[in-house]
Amino acid sequence: MPGTAMTAVSAAEQLKARTGAPTAGTGLQPAPEEGVDVLAVAIAAAPETSSREDTDEALHPTPQPRRGAVETALWYGVDVAARAATAGVTGKAGETLLVEPPSSKTGELPAKLIFVGVGDESVQSLRRAGAALARATKGAHLIRAAVVDGLDPAAQQAFVEGFLLGGYTAPRQGKTPAGPAMAGAMEVTGLDSDALRLAQITARAVWLARDLTNLPPDVATPEWMADRSRAVAERAGLEITVLDEAELLRQGFGGLTAVGSGAANPPRLVQVSYQPSAKTAEHVVLVGKGITFDSGGISLKPREAMMSMKMDMAGAAVVLATVEAAAELELPHRVTGILALAENAIGASAYRPGDVVTTYDGTTVEIGNTDAEGRMVLADALAYAAAGLAPDVLVDIATLTGAAALGLGQQYGAVFSNTPYLLDALEKAGDTSGDRIWPLPLVHDYDYALASETADMAHVAPPALKFGAGAIVAALFLEKFVDGVPWVHLDIAGPMSARADKHEIAKGATGFGTRLLISFLRDASNLRRPS
């Protein structure tokens, strides 16, 4: 089930200041024997102005050259302004303009010169520029890019990250290739080494989360996910514990075992832990919903709704990828991931609407809908973490409710928290990382929707109540199991997948939440309550 290989990115020397003739060497032009087949330089959007008198210029402003753009245009003998006007290219982030060398210089110059639009050169614009370059250079051997030469490390990281994410193609089974290969290598002039390292670690984590989530459910079963977690733990130096079905029953994980009771592939609970050298560091526990396939159980889903349900374990995939990234980044605080893995299937032993399930902390829950299984496995995992792992911060991430997707669409995740400063920190991390989130309220006036006459609580509002606010009700249910620990709930049902490539997002599983959590964890101040 191979996908495409990730481009090897390296730093090259910063361009020299140009002196003398416009074509004087800056260090960008490669010799033929270097094997560079693509040159990439930046063009920025013209600054906004109301003083343009030329109507055509007002409608199609000329893009502004950045480092290396003037001399490369002269090498290739191209009037970039005229070519851009014809193509409708204005330097907007993610635009590309392809130029080939004149026939007299074939073999002397790289086969392609690409002018990459960087817009306003913001982090978001550079991320989009990187993704566009990745798609425009598939199949290339070696790229030399001056797109971020002279920019700050955050912009450089965004460009490389966007490039690596934009070139992703999902793995597939069979004889047909997954898709055109990413460029073999890219040299980026003036690239900061820390920016490169952060971009590569983050991109590898997102690729892992995407790969796991894109795999078919006959491959990515709970047992297979546990085995994959062992492989990740071994290569990253993580501690790992896997609880099988018998141990889950013995320890009282009633929610997880109920959800998995009708499946041929029994449930698992995986705990992976990164421990820094400082033993007194803050402890963050990440909990991921890992429903490897969701049929809805006895409350059966329609066929159309079932096709994407191999991705109902996206939260668990994000958690595993994030913990590995924490170890690679050598963060100063402990990070533990809990993957609650089960297959929600129909069988003679499947749990039923009307059942009363006893969760890990002893709470009894009346089942109103077996298709609301995610909150049941999370209830066990959150209660287990709160009772036994002493977290300073507890975060769960889950493809939990269609209500969140309906309210926020596919570009924003919903976030809830019992701790205001954590909401602020996650929003900041979302803005920085590109995984955007939107806070929704925990409305405790709605607690009555979870009342039950036969158990401590219900896990869904009864149909007769005709109660909306499905994402809020689900979050209220989960809050009952965190025992007052500072907690964040991320509902990623909307942005878990994409129907088409767009910017750094690739078609299929998006890995949404991986960049968000890595950005959140990198800032240790996020983990301490403000004084």
TrEMBL record:
<dbReference type="Pfam" id="PF00883">
    <property type="entry name" value="Peptidase_M17"/>
</dbReference>
<feature type="binding site">
    <location>
        <position position="373"/>
    </location>
    <ligand>
        <name>Mn(2+) 1</name>
    </ligand>
</feature>
<comment type="similarity">
    <text>Belongs to the peptidase M17 family.</text>
</comment>
<feature type="binding site">
    <location>
        <position position="373"/>
    </location>
    <ligand>
        <name>Mn(2+) 2</name>
    </ligand>
</feature>
<keyword id="KW-0464">Manganese</keyword>
<feature type="region of interest" description="Disordered">
    <location>
        <begin position="47"/>
        <end position="66"/>
    </location>
</feature>
<comment type="function">
    <text>Presumably involved in the processing and regular turnover of intracellular proteins. Catalyzes the removal of unsubstituted N-terminal amino acids from various peptides.</text>
</comment>
<dbReference type="GO" id="GO:0004177">
    <property type="term" value="F:aminopeptidase activity"/>
</dbReference>
<feature type="binding site">
    <location>
        <position position="289"/>
    </location>
    <ligand>
        <name>Mn(2+) 2</name>
    </ligand>
</feature>
<feature type="binding site">
    <location>
        <position position="371"/>
    </location>
    <ligand>
        <name>Mn(2+) 1</name>
    </ligand>
</feature>
<protein>
    <recommendedName>
        <fullName>Probable cytosol aminopeptidase</fullName>
        <ecNumber>3.4.11.1</ecNumber>
        <ecNumber>3.4.11.10</ecNumber>
    </recommendedName>
</protein>
<dbReference type="Pfam" id="PF02789">
    <property type="entry name" value="Peptidase_M17_N"/>
</dbReference>
<keyword id="KW-0378">Hydrolase</keyword>
<dbReference type="InterPro" id="IPR008283">
    <property type="entry name" value="Peptidase_M17_N"/>
</dbReference>
<feature type="compositionally biased region" description="Basic and acidic residues">
    <location>
        <begin position="50"/>
        <end position="59"/>
    </location>
</feature>
<keyword id="KW-0963">Cytoplasm</keyword>
<feature type="domain" description="Cytosol aminopeptidase">
    <location>
        <begin position="369"/>
        <end position="376"/>
    </location>
</feature>
<dbReference type="InterPro" id="IPR011356">
    <property type="entry name" value="Leucine_aapep/pepB"/>
</dbReference>
<feature type="binding site">
    <location>
        <position position="294"/>
    </location>
    <ligand>
        <name>Mn(2+) 2</name>
    </ligand>
</feature>
<dbReference type="InterPro" id="IPR043472">
    <property type="entry name" value="Macro_dom-like"/>
</dbReference>
<keyword id="KW-0479">Metal-binding</keyword>
<keyword id="KW-0031">Aminopeptidase</keyword>
<feature type="active site">
    <location>
        <position position="375"/>
    </location>
</feature>
<feature type="binding site">
    <location>
        <position position="312"/>
    </location>
    <ligand>
        <name>Mn(2+) 2</name>
    </ligand>
</feature>
<feature type="binding site">
    <location>
        <position position="294"/>
    </location>
    <ligand>
        <name>Mn(2+) 1</name>
    </ligand>
</feature>
<dbReference type="InterPro" id="IPR023042">
    <property type="entry name" value="Peptidase_M17_leu_NH2_pept"/>
</dbReference>
<feature type="active site">
    <location>
        <position position="301"/>
    </location>
</feature>
<keyword id="KW-0645">Protease</keyword>
<dbReference type="InterPro" id="IPR000819">
    <property type="entry name" value="Peptidase_M17_C"/>
</dbReference>
